[in-house]
Amino acid sequence: MQLFFEQLVNGWALGSLYALFGIGFGLVFATLGILNAAHGAYASWAAIIGYYAVTSLGLPLPLALLAGVLGGGAIAIIVDQVAFQPLRAVGAGMLGALITSIAFWIILDSLAGFATKQQSLAFPPSSYPYNMVDFGVIRVPAMQIITIITLILVTTGMWILIARTRVGAAMRAVGWNATAAGLGGVNARMVILLTAFLAGATSGLAGVLGGIATNNVSYTLGEALLLKGFAAVVVGGYDDVRGTAIAGICLGIIEVFVAQYISTSFRDGFTYILLLTFLVARPRGLFGSISVQRA
């Protein structure tokens, strides 16, 4: 039973990373109608920024984490304004936005590879809590606890923002119809910028925490998060951060248990079987309630 509970916590922490990433990915899709393939690069760049903040500037982990989050948000805004704003101006569809995002994904990954010299970097162990915390019969790494708590706080904060504030109402209005929202007095441009920043920031948070958890800070870090985060959004429902969080956690737990009790080679395959099942049987996900038909 000890192994079971340890793997349960491992899956919960891993799923928390998927969920953190998926929350931002789903936010962009629900509000802007964009499947942003470049989203994974935000996580990679945030981890790189956090790494150099620690190793080159000597910043403590909280400030390095903040630097990564702000960096991810800033990059997301730049990409949105350079890549997607011109497409919105001419009324381009979702396919054009997807192709453009793939191009920026390649560009950002190439720049990240240059920044890391195509190497896998790692945060110094002294820069983050690496002690174990006892919970009865199991011992849990402190960083896993931090990751899980971070997801709870982010999910709660994002849900309150989207569901209970005027800003969230404006975001939902833009998600339904940006033109109508503008006619109703909503500053659609500011909503778009805020959405892009929040999406990049949550992705950046997942990137820095993921870089620490996996001892892998590289230009490829965001690729796995992109695929699993997308799965969390599809399963949970892209317009409900709570659904994405729950789905991400479940995916992480399933992935760890499949690797432990069945086969590591089937770990990713099971995730995509589940993804395809939801795309066919319930495309809105477990908690989804709206559909997006624009870019």
Automatic annotation (TrEMBL):
This protein's UniProt keywords: Amino-acid transport, Cell membrane, Membrane, Transmembrane, Transmembrane helix, Transport
Protein's UniProt keywords contain Membrane: yes
GO BP terms: amino acid transport
Subcellular location: Cell membrane
Record membrane topology: Multi-pass membrane protein
GO cellular component terms listed in the entry, alphabetical order: plasma membrane
Positions of transmembrane segments: 12-35, 65-83, 95-116, 136-162, 191-213, 245-263
Pfam families in the cross-refs: BPD_transp_2
UniProt key word Amino-acid biosynthesis: no
GO molecular function: transmembrane transporter activity
Similarity-based family: Belongs to the binding-protein-dependent transport system permease family. LivHM subfamily.
Record-given protein name: Amino acid/amide ABC transporter membrane protein 1 (HAAT family)
The species this protein was found in: Acuticoccus sediminis
